Structures are given as structure tokens and as C-alpha cells.
Amino acid sequence: MIASRSRDKLDKALPVIGGNAEARQLDFSKEAEVRDFFSSLGAFDHLVLMAAGLPAWGKLSDIQSGALESAFKTKFWGYFLCAKYGAPLIGEGGSVLFTTGGAARSAIPGTAGVSAVNGAIMCMAMTLAKELAPIRVNVLSPGLVDTPAYNWMSAEEKKAFFKQMRGNLPVGRVGQPDELAQAALYLLSNSFTTGAILDVDGGGRLH
Question: b/e map of 64-103 (b: 16 or more CB within 10 Å)?
Fold first, then answer.
């Protein structure tokens, strides 16, 4: 079962996933929608949250309070609501996986707003790992990965951007979606892992 605010993204994702996948439209920043969504699901095994939200970029003096409020509403609150209404339905051996941005694991000027949102999610996850036990709760923290999130650039601009940024990474390249998938599957399947933050960032946090 996949869910997204965007019907168009869901329609594009289903053929790629194949199998018995089902899609439902959901704005997880709206509590009533989240409550109704989970009440219609019944029991399930794992809750994976990978929403980007509307990030508040910029230096402290440039961040608008409204933008930061929207960033929390469109990401943190959605994660909180899904955990609140989804966790009671997770079966034995199940887990919750929060995905956050790597900025919360590094001190990068211009990312205070982004770090605040993702840092709040990380702190919540660590507490929930004990509060929701034996349900496991983990965090996947990606770095720079070549995903459609950068498709707002032209192909040449993206290529130049990745070439510039890979010089800052110990592995010497940007990540690929399959590498995030491998990390997510590990956190979902390893029954002895909870309260973990797994950095899949090519060593970016060390820069």
C-alpha cells in the first residue's frame, strides 16, 4: 500500500512497483484524513514514511517563520500523525521507519530550518523506540541521492551539480535510489535493530 498527496505520482508509481500494490491519495498533514486512512486498513507489518514536505531553506536571518511553520506541518506533523494512528495496527515483529534528510546530521549553514524539522523527527523516533516497544522504530538518513527530487533542474544543470557535490563526499559520487532501498529493507527486516539512525550519505556528514 502506497499513499501520497499527489494522484499523479501514485499513478506513475504503481506500474513500476507491480504485483498487488495498491495506492490511495492521502494528505498526511490533515489529522482526519490520516485517522480515516488507517482505520480503513486493518493490521499491517511495517509503516515507512518518506515524505519530503515543504522545506524551509536559508540562513537564519532569511528564514520566514511562515515557511518554517509550513515545513513542520507538511513533514513533522505528518510523521507524528501517521505514527499515532498507524502504530496500534502494526503486528508482531513490525516496525516504523522514519526517513529524514542528512542535514540534521551535519552542521551546514543555510539548513537550520530543514535541520530543525528532521531533528525533531529523529528525537521523536528515539523516544518511540522505547515507548512503542516491542514495535521497532528506526530512522533512515539519506544524503545526496539522484532521485526525481532534482528533476526541476535541466539534465545539464543536474549533471554539473552532482559533479560539484560529489567532490565533498568520501565515496566520490552521489547515491542511487537502490542504495536507499537496500538500507530500508535492512531496517525493516533486522529484528534486533531499533532506535537506530542509519546514515546512507556517502560519508557526507563527515565533511
Answer: eeeebebbbebbbbbbbbbbebbbeebeeebbbbbbbbbb
Helices (H), 87-154: 112-131
Model confidence pTM above 0.85: yes
Torsion sign across C-alpha atoms 143, 146, 147, 151: positive
According to DSSP, residue 83 is labeled H
As a whole number of Å, the end-to-end CA separation of the chain is 37
Predicted confidence (pLDDT) per residue in 116-150, tens digit: 999 999 999 999 999 999 999 999 999 889 988 78
Contact 113, 68 (CB under 8 A): yes
Sheet order of strands, 197-200 included: 44-49, 90-99, 136-142, 197-200
**Residue recorded with cell 509503516:** 47
Bridge partners of residue 47, in order along the sequence: 96
| pLDDT, tens only, 186-199 | 999 999 999 999 99
- Given a contact cutoff of 8 angstroms between Cβ atoms, the answer to whether 164 and 173 are in contact is no
Residues 86-122 have pLDDT tens digits of 999 999 999 999 999 877 777 778 778 888 999 999 9
Helix %, strand %, coil % of the chain (to 5): 50, 15, 35
